[in-house]
UniProtKB/TrEMBL annotation:
This is ABC transporter ATP-binding protein. PROSITE patterns: ABC_TRANSPORTER_1, ABC_TRANSPORTER_2. GO terms for molecular function: ATP binding. The keyword ATP-binding applies. PANTHER family: AMINO ACID IMPORT ATP-BINDING PROTEIN (PTHR43166), PHOSPHONATES IMPORT ATP-BINDING PROTEIN PHNC (PTHR43166:SF4). The lineage of its organism: Bacteria, Bacillati, Cyanobacteriota, Cyanophyceae, Oscillatoriophycideae. It comes from Limnospira platensis NIES-46. The keyword Magnesium does not apply. InterPro entries: AAA+_ATPase (IPR003593), ABC_ATPase_HisP-typ (IPR030679), ABC_transporter-like_ATP-bd (IPR003439), ABC_transporter-like_CS (IPR017871), MetN_ABC_transporter-like (IPR050086), P-loop_NTPase (IPR027417). Belongs to the ABC transporter superfamily. Pfam families: ABC_tran. Residues 4-230 form the ABC transporter domain. Keywords: ATP-binding, Nucleotide-binding, Phosphonate transport, Transport.
Length: 230
């Protein structure tokens, strides 16, 4: 039961920078895939195509049965399926934590405010931020803000969650709390594609690790295969 089927995806930035050079990846429902590889190899660009944040020129991407158009025409449809968490938390600084989480459900999903708030409070509780609901992002630590970003993405009830180096901007003591939230999500059966350098997380949580280099997937395997083969 494949929920992401990317086949032979090519992307150029401008006319001549060939950033994705024929990348294929299939992700099954409930699978956790970790993408690793050197900086600049195209990992972020690749997963951003799944959420229609990046156009691509050749190949095909099907997300839960929806074929992505190359020029981002079905962007709204796809963003309902796919939640994303970024390195920078991207919270709205002038909105409270609760408002950050309810914004999309109210304006995109058209949920009544009371329902959106109820769901948001449950999510904030799950990621351990409930006491901070009335505060503003600037009053929270980086680790707390990132957990709010996870709750915000989950509020849209996505089928797939993408993580783009979610711990890279955090102080070391805050990395664990974010990885724990991701671990819980994985154990609940969420389909996840994570770009991360966290080897411990990859070893313990990933079903599959893929290595990207210079615009191509060059290696893939279970964590055991991946980390034990030189
Ligand atoms: P990774 O996530 O593996 O670090 P990225 O996907 O962020 O790699 O970037 C791959 C390459 O594409 C890098 O060389 C980067 O500088 C380049 N790149 C990223 N975004 C743009 C852009 N908007 N325009 C031109 N080049 C870009
Ligand atoms: P970059 O890597 O280029 O610095 P990011 O990956 O942090 O940027 O974010 C890219 C853009 O996507 C930002 O302008 C951000 O506002 C926007 N964005 C934030 N949240 C979402 C979301 N859930 N879905 C789509 N786009 C988002």
């Amino acid at each position: 039961d494949a929920v992401i089927i990317a086949q032979d995806v090519h992307k150029w930035y401008g006319n001549n920078f060939h950033v994705l050079r024929g990348v294929s990846l299939t992700v099954r429902r409930g699978e956790v895939v970790v993408i690793m590889g050197p900086s600049g190899s195209g990992k972020s660009t690749f997963i951003r195509t799944f959420n229609a944040l990046e156009e691509f020129q050749e190949g095909s991407i099907v997300i839960d049965g929806i074929t992505l158009s190359h020029d981002l025409k079905n962007i709204e449809e796809i963003r309902r399926e796919v939640g994303m968490v970024f390195q920078q938390f991207n919270l709205f600084p002038h909105l409270t934590i609760l408002q950050n989480v309810t914004l999309a459900p109210i304006w995109v999903r058209r949920w009544p405010k009371a329902k959106a708030e109820e769901v948001a409070m449950q999510l904030l509780e799950r990621v351990g931020i409930l006491e901070q609901a009335k505060k503003y992002p600037g009053q929270l630590s980086g680790g707390q803000q990132q957990r709010v970003a996870i709750a915000r993405a989950l509020a849209m009830q996505p089928k797939i969650m993408l993580f783009d180096e979610p711990t890279s901007a955090l102080d070391p003591e805050m990395v664990r709390e974010v990885l724990d939230a991701m671990r819980t999500l994985a154990s609940e059966g969420m389909t996840m594609v994570c770009v991360t350098h966290e080897v411990g997380f990859a070893r313990e949580v990933a079903d599959r690790v893929v290595l990207m280099s210079d615009g191509l997937l060059v290696e893939e395997g279970t964590p055991e295969e991946f980390f034990n083969n030189p």
